[in-house]
Amino acid sequence: MAELLEHGHLPVRTCIGCRKQGSRSELVRLVAQGGGSSAVLVDERRRMAGRGAWLHPSEKCLALAIKRRAFGRALAGASDTGAVERYLIPGTPLVEAQAAAGKPSKPESGSEN
Hints:
alpha+beta
């Protein structure tokens, strides 16, 4: 009942980083890309199909979610957070995002001729 009074009739969601509740408008919706990909996408319009996870738009909550491995649990194995990092941390180039995710910046197959 306290939640209803605190947030009115706004939908309440839980941040996968800090685990605190907030209104839907305070949080960013994330979805798994699908098709066998491990990429996590930012659903800015909150309309993409599939199960969603919610995150406060802060570097602190992003770091907590990565540390807790919350993306994989909330989004069925999705773990590539590069798109989320670029969205929340302006100026994050793709190479840094891949390094932060523990992925090499070049494919190791040797067939990139």
